[in-house]
Write the structure tokens for this entry.
Amino acid sequence: MTETPDQVHGRLNEAMHIADYAFDRAWEKFEWLLEEDRWKQVGSGHEDVNAFLSTVQLPKGASAEQRKTVAAKIKALQPEASQRRIAGVLGVGQATVGRDLRPEPNDSPPAQDPKRDAPPEELFEPNGSPTPDGPPEPEVQPQEDPPVEPEEFWEEDEEEDEEDGGNDLAVHYSSDSGEWYTPGHIIKAVVQAIGEIDLDPCSNAGTPIVPARTHFTYLDDGLAREWSGAVYMNPPYGRGIGEWTEKLRASFEAGDVTCAVALLPSRTDTAWMFALREYPKCFLRGRISFSGHANAAPFPSCAVYFGAEPERFARAFDGLGDTYVLLRR
């Protein structure tokens, strides 16, 4: 290819949001990035392949055979790639990838050499039966499958992942991807809640929709950057979402982020949401119709507030949903 790794990675991310984009074409670009560690040159640079894999979701449509081939190729090209991250790339459950990576069972027993495997003559009585003093038959130990890497605490079960397409619930990579722009009424409420936005760490690569002073796109690797000031975050909705919510929580508790609002899927059964239990939340009524998309999102949403003015946050989101606070831990 004549393009740079950054250009190829950008085209790959664009392809993620085009439903009819052929899986094999997207895989071709992704495979090129994995070969010769070109992924390390993407954005500001990556050292951890799993951090890079968290930025990629291949389009839906792969057959089971394609999925197995791709999972095996990723593992072959990048042995440090975790099953969890490979599952995120393919949009399936981690247990599925664990099964895909197991070696195929050998259905036919190994050929036996009758001369080699026959017991020595002295072990037989004259009638041809083994003598009582003959050696016992060796105990055959069943071969165990390689272990499947443990799944994340409270991670959604495999049936839900595969029914919903796994990372298909990751309706966008950025806050405002080409198909899933943050709705204007949400942005208006955020500005009312925290004032002028200093940072959108998950911004789109084109003309920003969120009115922030600073925007980080996927090329900037927002997780590796310092966050500060007033932040609005609408993170990738794949399995890596917990890394983004933890980054925001840690930055706020460290005092770098002064206040923030995060627009998140309302998945109260997840570990990352439980970790945010002490922060005020507005559970938005109905399901959000993201700008640029005909249908509402396939999940409910909530806005989580980080800051010293929860009443201001509640007033800003009044009419969009009900705000709740934790009474006791």
Notes: The CA atoms of residues 96 and 158 lie 7 Å apart. Residues 114-132, 143-179 have pLDDT under 50 and may be disordered. The first strand starts at residue 197 and ends at 200. The radius of gyration is 26 Å.
